[in-house]
Write a sequence for this structure.
């Protein structure tokens, strides 16, 4: 019977996206730029408002604008707001971890 090879496991104390060069990691709701994110918000909120405002004029057909607005907002108005915060703060803070202690610093 052969002895099994010894296995060692190593754990990294550096979290993903920590300081180490490269581009900053953006959140899942962030856009590439703030103007692009604001444009998405204008389209999304405009479509949602339009779907309700046009309801007396065009009837239930105006509700077809609502899904387009939700797609532009990436799900909901709160998702858009979270994305705005992520877009504005992308690249401004860096997390650095040394000796088991992590802290946020300005980039």
């Amino acid at each position: 019977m052969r002895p099994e090879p010894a296995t060692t496991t190593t754990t990294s104390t550096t979290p993903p996206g920590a300081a180490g060069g490269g581009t900053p990691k953006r959140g899942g709701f962030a856009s590439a730029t703030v103007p692009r994110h604001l444009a998405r918000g204008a389209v999304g909120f405009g479509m949602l408002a339009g779907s309700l405002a046009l309801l007396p004029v065009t009837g239930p057909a105006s509700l077809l604008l609502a899904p387009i607005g939700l797609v532009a907002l990436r799900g909901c108005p709160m998702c858009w707001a979270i994305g705005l915060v992520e877009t504005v703060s992308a690249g401004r803070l860096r997390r650095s971890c040394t000796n088991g202690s992590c802290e946020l610093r300005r980039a």
In short: The longest helix spans residues 34-53. The longest strand covers residues 93-98.
